[in-house]
Structures are given as structure tokens and as C-alpha cells.
User: Fold this.
Amino acid sequence: MSVDAHTISSELLERFEKGIDLMNPHESTIPARIIGYGEISTIFEILEPSLRGLAFKRLPIFRTEEEIRSYEHLFHEYNRIIEKDIGISVPWCSSVKIDPGYGNQVIYCIQEKLIEGSICNQLLHRFNLDSNILLLQAVLREMKKVHDFNASQRRMELALDAQISNWALRCETLPDRLTEGSIPLVYIDTSTPLMRIDGREQLDTELFLRSAPSFLVWLIKLFFLKGVVTRYYDPHLAVVDLIANLYKEQRDDLVEPFIAESNRFLAAELTHMNIEPITLKEVRSYYREDAFIWRLYLGLRKFDRFLHRNVMKKPYMYILPGKIKR
Assistant:
């Protein structure tokens, strides 16, 4: 990495924010290059020499200083626990808050950028079946660390969104295949810090509803929000979600082998939890429902952007992904 934790210039990020083109980030005053899309946010690098080697996620969802302080504390505490207490590798990270002068305040979540092609959903297309099974086994072992940690706690639980696109290999050059033994996985989706204390979710998930169209918030809150968050704490559903996302990654040929291997792992490694076996029917049904939710959500966000820009003549605060294959 070329940037030290203490040398990221908030002034530079303020200049970037003031000159950002949210429709075409590459045409911003300081250009940016999109390197990945989540369902809610976009990951990009800022093409400025002093920021080389960093990836940014922009969260323009905060209205008060208290919301910012609470989120930043949770973000850094989650990263600390995941790495130091649970033993899952995460990239170096930091955060910077920016007041753009209009709308919500913004936090930039900043991570060490890993080498091109090392994100595991890209590796799915590079590896053969045997290597992909080894990759799955490595992810399942990391997930087990979280379940073991939760079982050892009286008050605290953590969760991961463990879909394959949220993992990367820490390596200097990309391997053509994997072998038994150490697979240096890194968990990269740490800006959604899922943590419960005494059964109460510490992340204010309603913050993320601010990126949804105002006319949809009540519907998402009523039907989807609780279920989307809760599934990551459930060992069975978390693995179903991991496997179902293979359809989005255009690797449906891996679904049945991943189901078989996951059931073997759950039966052997989490015997005490009596987890129900995963079925192909369940995975297909889960993915159809999940894809429908996120396709509808993105479509309505684009409609909301149109209303802001063309009807209400107001700025729209969010960078939206392009078309996502499902």
C-alpha cells in the first residue's frame, strides 16, 4: 500500500466530493474508476496518485453527528473483533467523514485495494471444479469461526454476509488452481458491521433505507429489512445465501456440487447445531425471491433518481450500479 493510515487527506476527499459526477464518476473533477458494485453501494478507486492502492465506498446516509459517531465506532470495532478476536483476515481500513454542504453527510469507508482479479467471484471463473470446492471449504471454515465465537459469548453475536463476492485471496500473483492447505482468504465486506448485543442489532439498518425511494421505505421496512439482516446470523440460511449467489455469478453449474459439499461440512463440523441439510429446491426458491427483491429495488432507485433530477430538480446523492446480471 502506498498510503499510511494517518496520511489520507480529508481535504482531498472534500475536493473529490465537491467535484463528483454521480452519474459518471470517471468524469468527476478528480476522476474515479468503478471496481465493484454491491446491492446498495458502489466501490471505486480515486485516480489521484496519493490515494493509489485504496478502494472507497461512499455512504451518503447520515443526518446527524451522533449517527456518524455511532456508525464509525461500530465499523472500527467490528473490524477489530473480526480480525483480532475471531481470526478472520480483513484489509486495512479507515473512514473519513465529509459534509458536502447539501443533503446528507457522507462517510467514506476506505480499504486497502487487493490485486486485480483476486475477488473470489472472479476466481470462480478462473478455477476448475476441484479448486472451487477448495475455495468453498475455505469460506465455510471462516464462517465456522464466527459461529464458534458466537457460541463462546454470552451477550454478543457477529454475522458475515459471506457470499463469494465478499471474499478475496491475499496473494501477489493469481494462482491458476488451489491446493489443500492454507488458502489466504480476506473478508472485504466490513462496512456492513452486523453485530448484536443482548439480541439487539447494533447497526442502525434503517440508515441504509435512506438510499431507497421515499415512497418505498415503509414497504421495505415492513417486509424485507428484518429478514435480510437476520439471515446472516442463521448458519443454514447464510450458506443458502452463499450458494444461491452462484446464479448471479453465472456459475449455476456449481450449485449442486456446492450444496453437496456444504451439507458434508455442516454435518461434520457443526454437528452440535443440528442444521437441516440444504436442498436444491430451497436454493432455487431463495434465489428467485432474492433476485426479485434486488431487481425491484434497483429499478425503483433509478426511477427515484429520475424524479430527483428531472422533476423535482434536486440533487440525487447516490451512485447507482449499471445493469447487474442475475
